[in-house]
Amino acid sequence: MTQYIAAIDQGTTGTRCIVFDSTGRAVAMHYEEHHQIYPQPGWVEHDPLEIWQKTQSTVRGALDKGNIHSRELLALGVANQRETAVVWNKRTGRPYGNAIVWQCTRTRDLCQRLINDGLEPLLRQRTGLVVATYFAGPKIRWLLDNIPGLRADAERGEALAGTIDSWLIWNLTGGPNGGAHITDITNASRTLLMNLETLDWDQDLLDALGIPRQMLPAIRPSSDAATYGAVTADCLAGAHIPVCGAVGDQQAALVGQTCFAVGEAKNTYGTGSFMLMHTGEHPVPSPSGLLTTVAYGLQPGRCCYALEGSIAITGAAVQWLRDNLGLIHNASETETIASAVPDAGGAYFVPAFSGLFAPHWDMDARGAIVGLTRYITKAHLVRATLEAICYQTREVLDAMQADAGIELRTLKVDGGAVVNNLLMQLQADILGVTVIRPRVTETTALGAAYMAGLAVGVWPDLESLRRHWQVDRTFEPQWDESQRAQGYRGWKKAVERAKCWVED
């Protein structure tokens, strides 16, 4: 009987389940979108119950499409949108409210108070993160402060909190009937609550944010031979498949790209873009505005670290062109439309809809389009949107090379947007490095499958995973250094126009 690994990839806009065989080949996949909820400007929410329902239906859909029985699955891995926070009642399984999405800016005042109180240096030193609306800890505090009765329930141990991996694994393994309340080490490192040295929740930070320790999940390795628990949910027909891999989506992509050596890096193009560089077994502080984070953990109490540059809006800017402006009908049109012009005509688009993330970390920045003349057409704006994705990546790469002391020569890329050949060529041109697209571009799900498969022995070690990784296409830089420098100067000038826009 053929045996498989299933991976749930729960992302910002939807959920997919992919079933992989022992060679790392995807044999079946099913995907469903969920609603984006915008209660007021700057606020972004998801319905946790809808996400759980979509998760179950994508698992069933993938198995049905592949004609695979649940008993043929050896293990299940989970990858997830990382900093999105949810709280729920452990007796009823009901959320106390919608999940607060990583893009949401409602915690701006809370974050500013932490900065004003002088706590940012402590938080930065302990967690490797900056104080920003991005992270899960302030979101949990906001929920505690704004949902009646939640703090009392949390103090009594009746309210549970976590990122989406915790919510899904708790439901998969029984929910109110003994579900495992865990998170993996990569997701824990994105909360502003985990100490990068001890790899545990930091009591000083919990006290600073006013979060009861008992509502938080246990921190486990990303690949756990002890398993987090067995699936009892109906989506797997009660087959009791072990859930033994969990990893935040960007770290999952790092694993899926087999970036296991110091200095190897990947960039994922999704709703936002996220570049991670493997830095080894010791955390590397960043004076350049990057995040020091956990790359993955294979054993309790040990992990590898990474530097990360997080960009809030990249693919979401293309969605904005489609949904808000009506300039395109679907994302795939952007390559053809942008190719109709040789450049962006001097226009720059800074999509700072949720502020600027790395390396600027400006919560008060907002989107801007500059350099407009009567010459500019729809095609120029579409091309400027693709260039914005690449220029934001350039800013992150410059900071990463400075912090790590490593000159990057190749960048592995993944995510839905990498099928756009023009975007990938622009990325190579703007960076001045070779861009490599793998044959399997759904590397987030692949990384979750790798973590689960390592735990149950499908793959014996990391080197065995490298042997499955294959190149689809490489993109070499074509711009000369003068063109590259001129374009980048214009981008940085445009970014300055977008900074510090919100004054109240």
Would you write up a description of this structure?
With 504 residues, the protein is α+β, with helices and mostly antiparallel strands. The chain has a domain at 4-249: ATPase, nucleotide binding domain (Nucleotidyltransferase, domain 5). Helices cover 35% and strands 23% of the residues. It has helices spanning 48-66, 108-116, 120-127, 136-146, 150-155, 164-172, 185-188, 203-209, 249-256, 315-325, 333-339, 378-404, 421-431, 443-456, 462-466, 481-498, and strands at 4-10, 14-20, 26-33, 45-46, 73-80, 85-89, 99-100, 159-163, 182-184, 194-195, 200-201, 218-220, 229-230, 242-248, 265-269, 273-280, 291-299, 302-311, 348-350, 368-370, 410-414, 434-438, 471-475. The strands form seven sheets. The chain has a seven-stranded mixed sheet with strand order 17-18-16-15-21-22-23, sandwiched between helices. Strands 3-2-1-5-14-13 form a six-stranded mixed sheet, sandwiched between helices. Strands 4-7 form a two-stranded antiparallel sheet. The protein is globular. The model has no long low-confidence stretch (mean pLDDT 93).
Strand order of the largest sheet: 17-18-16-15-21-22-23
Quaternary state reads single chain
CATH architectural grouping of the domain at 4-249: 2-Layer Sandwich
CATH topology of the domain at 4-249: Nucleotidyltransferase, domain 5
Number of strands: 23
The averaged pLDDT comes out at 93
What is the makeup of the main sheet?
A: 7 strands, mixed
Rounded to the nearest angstrom, the radius of gyration is: 22 Å
- What helical percentage do the residues reach? 25-40%
Total of DSSP H or I helical runs spanning 4+ residues: 16
